[in-house]
Structure formats: C-alpha cells, structure tokens
Amino acid sequence: MPTSRVLGYAARAVGQPLEPFTFEPPKLGAHDVRVSVTHCGLCHTDIQAIDDYYGITTYPFVPGHEIVGYVSDVGGAVSELREGDRVGVGWQGRSCMKCEWCLQGEEQLCLDIVDSGTWVPFGGFSSSVVVDSRFAYPLPEAMLSEVAAVLMCAGIAVYSPLRSYAKRPAQKIGVIGVGGLGHLALQFAHALDYDITAISSSPRKRQQALAFGADHFISSDDQASLRQAEFGFDLLLCTASGKINWEPLLNTLKKNGTLVVVGFPDVSFNSTDLVAHQLSITGSFLGNRATMREMLSFAQEHGIMPKVELMPMTKVNQAVRKVRENKARYRIVLFNETTDTGR
Ligand SMILES: [Zn+2]
Ligand SMILES: [Zn+2]
C-alpha cells in the first residue's frame, strides 16, 4: 500500500487555474487498480469541467482522463492485471455493472455515469489514480505512451461513431473541426476507407488535414464551396465545440443523412430541412469496453498517430491556456517526471 499522499493539480473553484494539491490515496475496492500516472492528455472536456459547463463538477477538482501509467496496486478480485502492467484509462473509470446498459455491454450509457468518471474522486493530473480494473486497458507493447493517452478519449470518441454510423466503404463523410478529435477522426476514417472531407474554420489547416487523410478540404466560411457540397455527405461527424453556423453545414447532408455530434458545440437549427430531408441528428459518447479494445488494436495496426505536444505536468496551467486559446496542435500530453514506472 502506498503510504505517501498523492500529488495532483486541482481547480479550487469554477474557472480557476490549477494549483498543486495533495490528497490521501483513495482506498482500493476489490476490482480496483491503482495506476501510477506517467502521461495524461489534456482534453477540451477537462477545461469545460473546470468551468463547470456540465454542472456536475465538485471542487477541489483534479482533471485528467487520458491516462497512461503502470499498475502499482491491485484489489483482491483483480485477475486480469498485475503490478507493473502498462495500461490506458479513459474518461470512464468504472460503472455500476448492473443497470440495463451495463448488462448489454454499453457501459458508457451506465445510469451512474456521473459517478463513473475517472476524475471521481481525483483525475489523472496527478501522480496516481484508482479505477476499476475492467476500465484499465492493457496497451499494445509498441504503442508510445503519449499516443495511447490521446487515444483513450479523443480516439474512442471518434472511432466508436465511425464504426456505428458509417457502414459502407467509400461512403462520403464530412468531419467538422480539425482539432484534437478531428485530426484523429480523419486518420481513422481514412484507414476505414471512406471518402472524407475536412471542414474547418481555419483555412490554414488545409495541408495538415489532407496529410491526416482527408480527401478534400472546405473552409467553413467558404459559402461557395459549401453550396457545391450540398447533398454530398452520408454522414457529418461534428468534433468541434463552441458556436457553429449549422444551416449551410446541414445542407451538405444527403437526404436521410446523419449528423453525429461528439464535441459539445452550441446546437440550434431550423426544423424545415431537418423534417423535409429526413435528417437524423444524434450524439455519441465515448464507446464501450469492447470498442475500446478494438480501437486500440486498429490504431496500432493502421499506424494512427495523434500529433502530440509533450509538456511536463508542472506546466499544466500553460497547457490549459494554450487549449483555451485554441493553440494546441493538436493535443497536449502532460508527463510526470518522477512517477515510478513500476518496473
Ligand atoms: Zn476527453
Ligand atoms: Zn450501469
């Protein structure tokens, strides 16, 4: 059992910068593992939670849910993991395992989802976390830890809807937003053999979007190109957050087309086209455990590579500022310099 307190970085109140914060190591339940954090990605969701955008944050709040580290302690009922194993942990760190959704293997829809976050009680911007071992995923040996970290949230968030909603190869897909989620969506969609158009508010991202695997690029301010794309896409995957001019975008969907929202943008639109074009609008949240395992091996097999900027955990506020200013290209991963790797 660890005797020392855990060092983390916490927001003390809504929107505050993170401060060093030490706490007692949470006790292990029978199915739990303690994971010494070596890497943790910074996701837009962490910042929205610091700002209590979802209305569920309790303070002091230690964010962080794109975790890679080494198992340092295991509960009595854990059989699949051992001390020293390298694992990845995403947003979901546990589930009730008994509600209708958990019993169907759709744990991301668990009725106890608010209490299932990896950041309950404290997240990965720290030296260690405790999660249910069934949500700690062994990683392909050759996969870099910073790569795996980003896949644990951004990766599963885009892979799962691409798997569920895009059925036929060569289907035409528009990916809205070329950021932390979007740059991975382009890579996964390319590997899945879809015809992909990246749609971004930053025209300067064109080259990079094509390099990530987009076949075409449209600037979301370019009304002429959007009009040309009318009735073009089977599926729109929205990875962006914030304000979006929806009308010209929805017009790019084929009749019977589907918009899947995975970011947290402001959403409003005119119901006329929705009804007359028989559009479907849906959300997609993370993915289940089976899809997580599938995503990790798919990413390894197809060389999916998030573009990562590594920063020491001690610079967490600098990293948060960069994401707030939309300057991260494309994902920041924080690393702990002192974490015992368990080896
Ligand atoms: Zn996330
Ligand atoms: Zn459940």
Number of strands: 15
Bound small molecules, by name, code or SMILES, are: zinc ion
Number of helical elements = 10
Between the first and last Cα atoms, what is the distance in angstroms? 17 Å
Secondary structure: elements and pairs:
Blueprint: E1 6-11, E2 18-23, E3 32-42, H1 44-50, E4 67-74, E5 86-89, H2 100-103, E6 128-132, E7 136-138, H3 145-165, E8 172-176, H4 182-191, E9 195-200, H5 206-212, E10 216-219, H6 223-228, E11 233-238, H7 246-250, E12 253-261, H8 271-276, E13 280-283, H9 289-302, E14 308-312, H10 316-324, E15 331-335
Parallel strand pairs: 8-9, 8-11, 9-10, 11-12, 12-13, 14-15
Antiparallel strand pairs: 1-2, 3-4, 3-6, 3-15, 4-5, 5-7
Helix pairs in contact: 3-4, 3-9
The structure holds zinc ion (2 copies).
Features:
343 residues; alpha/beta; seven-stranded mixed sheet; 15 strands; binds zinc ion
Question: How would you portray this structure in words?
Answer:
Helices cover 26% and strands 25% of the residues. By secondary structure, it is an alpha/beta fold. The chain is globular. The two termini are 17 Å apart. The protein binds zinc ion (2 copies). The site of one zinc ion has 8 residues, from α2.
Question: Nutshell version of this structure?
Answer:
The chain has 343 residues and is α/β, with parallel strands linked by helices. The protein has helices at residues 44-50, 100-103, 145-165, 182-191, 206-212, 223-228, 246-250, 271-276, 289-302, 316-324, and strands spanning 6-11, 18-23, 32-42, 67-74, 86-89, 128-132, 136-138, 172-176, 195-200, 216-219, 233-238, 253-261, 280-283, 308-312, 331-335. Helix 8 (271-276) links the parallel strand 12 and strand 13.
